[in-house]
Amino acid sequence: MDHSGHGMTMDLPPFTLGRGLEWSTDPFFLVACLLGLALYGWGVARLVRRGDRWPVGRTVAYTAGVLSIALMMCTKLNDYGMVMFSVHMVQHMVISMVSPILILLGAPITLALRALPTAGRGRKGPRELLLMLLHSRYMRIITHPAFTIPLFIASLYGLYFTPLFDFLMESRPGHIAMMVHFLAVGVVFFWPIMGVDPGPHRPGYLMRMLELFAGMPFHAFFGIALMMGSTAMVDTFRNPPASLGIDALSDQNAAGGIAWAFSEVPSVLVLIALLFQWYASEKRQARRKDRAADRDGDKELEAYNAYLASLNARGN
Asked: What is the DSSP letter of 263?
């Protein structure tokens, strides 16, 4: 039986990491990943040619993010993920939490705005259309925490605990749509929090941390629910192929453990990135104030000292 359109998944041997990492491409994700890398490389090359600099760390982060998607979708992890809940959960967590963070740290929107040429007067090219999208009401809505946090939570509970998951897993287009959804949800959730690329919703650093931790407990609860389940909770994985030699309930418990673990690790990584951004922002503000003081002879400090002197004179 061809379970998914990805290959003869019913005949898969017992899972090992070596078997999971064997090449088994999904054409859609292979083309998408190659296109994403090519466009980013074009942008970096364009900046370099005109003498501008682009941080190497951003290129490394973006490349790692795209390759993490390819690792999940263009290897036999994707085949095993069709019949093993634990492997599918690794795919879900990486594509929805690790890949978006790395891609956003690569600042692809900033790169596009710097690399794309401006259109002539009265015309709208790709750069102008991108700016229109960034400033649109649609973008303000989908990046607002009142939208992103419920969407992040619903992508777990509304998918796995309803018949929708089984329906999507029955066909190749459904499975692709699900994985694209996971990636998109991760991007819109972490985009306002990471704050590298420009966006319509950009709260202060403390509020970003609160947004980050608002969604994470629900991830942990979801993982605990799977670990504590006494019966198989998702029909797709209720009867794994005998060739795998696994128990459905044990595999579900493992999937729950993976979901629970992924509620912690990415949160710590994002928190560290936020603290570094906050520190860098404070340093930039301090340098700006120092330059302003050098220009105007620190008039603000002089005015404050004069105010203190007037209070002292009044007291005498």
From this structure: T
